[in-house]
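Collaborator request, handled under Task 6.
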Amino acid sequence: DIIWSCAATLFACTWTSLHPNIPGMDEGKFTLFSRRLRIMLMALITQELIITWATMQFLSARNTAKDFNDTFEWTTTHGFFAWMGGFMLYVDGKPRAPLQPDELLGFVREGSVDMPVITQADIEDRSKGDTLSKGIAILQLAWFVLQLVTRYVQNLPITLLEIDTLAAAALTGIAYGFWWKKPKDVGRPYTVHWKGT
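Structure tokens returned to the collaborator:
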């Protein structure tokens, strides 16, 4: 029962906290699943790297939102979306490359592309992470903590596995906090068409 509870808590917290970038146009489901599984294993083994990764992404997204807010109404969600490959440049009707935020802003200022008109609600609609999935992970963690507190109050022993699980879940929660506004499991980027010269 202890092993199952720890495994379920680790899986729920880790799997739902991961917010991968938008996949490439030619990547299949197996590739996406194996990439996510590798990231999940990395998150279980080296939580500090995942927190660093999430922090860097959050800071980049926030700075991008600030850069675009001089002219456009962008949020941190827009910044995350741009950095995760959310804007795909199409030239002559064919996908060319995902645009980095600085490239997008430069092309918009040059007049080579129109500024994508996508609201935060539209981006969130593309996201497959909803309040229910986040809530389930939080409830699983809360249930796990409640079990530990109950056992402590009853003077029952708490295993090292449970303490490690609690620590890993807490660290995953930090990454989750940084990724809270990042769209989750977006499958397709927003199309940006090259105007030409």
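The cover message to the collaborator said: "Strands lie at 87-91, 94-98, 190-193. The helical segments are 2-17, 29-45, 47-68, 76-83, 101-110, 120-126, 131-153, 160-178. Please let us know whether this matches your experimental observations."
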